[in-house]
Write a structure and sequence with these properties.
Shape: globular
Structural class: alpha/beta
Order of helices and strands: EHEEEHEHHEEHEHHEHEHEHE
Strand content: 15-25%
Number of helices: 10
Largest sheet: 5 strands, parallel
Strand order of the largest sheet: 4-2-1-6-5
Amino acid sequence: MIIIEPCAGLGNKLLGMSSAYAVAQKLNRELIVMWKREVGCNVKAEELFELPFRVIEISENGYSKEPVAHFRGNQLKKKWRAKADRFLECGDVEAIKKQKGYEGLLAVREPVIYIKSFGPLCELDAASLAFLKPSAGILQKGEPLFSQLGAKTVGVHVRRTDHTEAIANSPLSLFADKMRQEMTEVPGTDFFVATDDEGVKRELREALPDAKLIFHDSGIIDRNSKEGICDAYIEMLALSRCRKILGSYNSTFSLLPSYIGDIPLEVVKKD
């Protein structure tokens, strides 16, 4: 059995969960996912996905906010960790990957392994995420956006806020240049733009007055709310339904939709 406790935000959780499922299949192990509602991803897994393995929902929102749920979550983690023959913290996982690569994790063969991770446990590709099915609620909520996407739509993901690497290496002017190039090479191209910065929308409208820009204007940017995470997943799915993605440097949120949709990802970055 493999027990995975994926950590951090939605993208990191998807990397950990999807790669754990791939490893479990390769090793013919049962997979248990400890899905945490926490800062940066405060939503239940069942509200986002239909999953082919057992998911145990827990809360790490603190005793002051959710005393009963937080206490129960701690008890469940203790229960499942007690079942494990080996426990790997996030730092242990990264150390094994650094020393031995992904093969080092595959070599961990105790009968029951409990792993905490904020990243992948193996190489991922489009086939690795084929199991991921959006919930009925997500599909219903996302339909008004999905219906606007056509065969020529290009997805654009501009990552900002606290992602200093994306800000430094993927300036908005380069995105605008790439979008102009797409419009020239494929007449009729339109763009779905996903971003965590409202200012980006305004600047792109000014820089590309002749472009058709599609936004998911839900009005919710807060990724600590359930609604914000649901909207983030809808945007990820919308990106996956485009013909290609122009993505931000070193952004999981740019990478995952390319796997989900099995479409090309072009990272926009300085030379």
